[in-house]
Amino acid sequence: MEQLTSRQEEILGIVVREYIASAVPVGSQTIVRRYGLGLSPATVRNELAFLEREGYLLQTHASAGRIPSDKGYRYFVHRLMQETELSPSEQRMISHQFHQVQLELQQWMKLAAAVLAQTARSASLVTAPKAPQARLKHLEMISLSDVTALLVMVFQDGSIRQQVVLLPTPTGQDELTKVSNHLNELLGSANAAEVRTGPAATAPLTALERHVVERVAETLEQMDRRSEREIHRDGLIHVLRQPEFAQVDKFRQVVEVLERRSLLESIIAEVLWANGVQVIIGGEGRWDDIEDYSLVLSPYGVRGEANGVVGVLGPTRMPYDRAIPAVRFVARLMSSLVEHMYGY
C-alpha cells in the first residue's frame, strides 16, 4: 500500500471518521468548516479528487461528497488509527462482569458475546475453544439406583457429557466413588488413544471399570470426529439499526451471513492461526458474501491445546477504533479462562 502525504492522510482520516459517525457523504465545505485545516475549499477538493482517483474514496453521484472505499478503510486501519485500548474504567467494568460469573465455559461465551456487542455496537461472534484432540479432565459416577449410575465426564475444554450406566451388580455410592477415584488416577488427562493404550488398558479392572473406560474412550473419539464449533452470537439489533440495512433485502442478507455456518467457519479457520486482532474489510476480495461488511476477529486460548475466536461483524462503516480494542481485550480475558482450564 503506497504512502500518502501527511495532508492527504489527514483529509482521508477526516472523511473516514465523519462518515463512520454520520453515514453521510463528506464534502470539502464540511472539512473546511469543521476542521480549520488552513486550506482553501479548492485545495481540499483537489485532494479529495486525488484520493478518489487512487481508489481511497468513492463519489456516489456528481453533486455528493465522498465516502471511503474498502481501500480507504484499510489504509485508515493500518496507517491512521492509533493503537488504542479501552479506557481503564471500561476494562474494570468488563473484568468485573467476567469475575461475577462462575468459571464455566458456557457462561463466559455468552458474556463475551454480550459484552462485545454492547461495547462495539456491532453483532458479535464467539466460538467455543476446541482442542486438536479432546482430553478427559475427570469423571464422576453418581448413584441413581442399586443397578444404575450416572457417568459424568468433564473434559479439558470445559464440556460435559453424561451417560446412564447399567451396573453389573448392585452398587452403592461409596463404591462408585472409589471406582471414580481409581479411574481418575489411571486415566489422568488422557486423549482417546491414551485411554485405549495407556495404564487403563493393562491394569486389572473390574467389569464395571472396563465398561466405564470403554464409554470414556468412545466419547473422546466422538468428540474428535466433531468438526463444527459452537458459535455464540449477539447484538444483531445493533447492525440492523444502521442505515445501510434499512432495505428489506439488506436486512435479510446480514441475517443470512450470521447464520451461514460454512462461511463463518472458513473465515474462523484462518483467524485461528493468526496473531492478534485481524480486520477483514469487505471480504477482502475473497468472500463475496461479506463484501458489504467488516469483521474484527481475534484468536484466543492456548495454541496447541485449545483455541477459539472472538469478534464482531458490522457494515464496512464500522467504528474500528472501538471494535478493535474491545475485541483485543475480550480475547485476553477468554485466553485467561482457557489457561486456567488447562492449568497454565
Write structural notes for this entry.
With 344 residues, the chain is α+β, with helices and mostly antiparallel strands. The protein has three domains: 6-80, Arc Repressor Mutant, subunit A; 88-130 and 229-341, GAF domain (Beta-Lactamase, 2-Layer Sandwich); 136-225, 2-Layer Sandwich (Enolase-like, domain 1). The protein has 14 helices and ten strands. The chain has helices at 6-22, 28-35, 41-53, 70-80, 88-100, 105-120, 173-187, 192-197, 199-202, 207-225, 236-240, 248-259, 261-271, 320-341, and strands at residues 57-59, 66-68, 123-127, 136-145, 148-155, 160-166, 231-234, 278-281, 293-302, 306-315. A hairpin with a 2-residue loop joins strand 4 and strand 5 (148-155). The longest helix has 22 residues, at 320-341.
Specify the overall morphology: elongated
Number of helices: 14
The CATH homologous superfamily of the largest domain is named: GAF domain
Total number of β-strand segments? 10
- Roughly what percent helix? 40-55%
What is the mean predicted local confidence, pLDDT? 90
Distance between the termini: 40 Å
Return the structural class.
alpha+beta
Number of domains: 3
List the secondary-structure elements in sequence, H or E. Answer: HHHEEHHHEEEEHHHHEHHHEEEH
**Tell me about the biggest sheet?**
5 strands, antiparallel
* Main sheet strand line-up: 7-3-10-9-8
| Low-confidence blocks of residues | none
CATH architecture of the largest domain: 2-Layer Sandwich
Give the percentage of residues in beta strands.
Answer: 15-25%
CATH fold naming of the largest domain: Beta-Lactamase
Kindly provide the name of the CATH class of the largest domain.
Answer: Alpha Beta
- Rg on CA atoms, Å: 26 Å
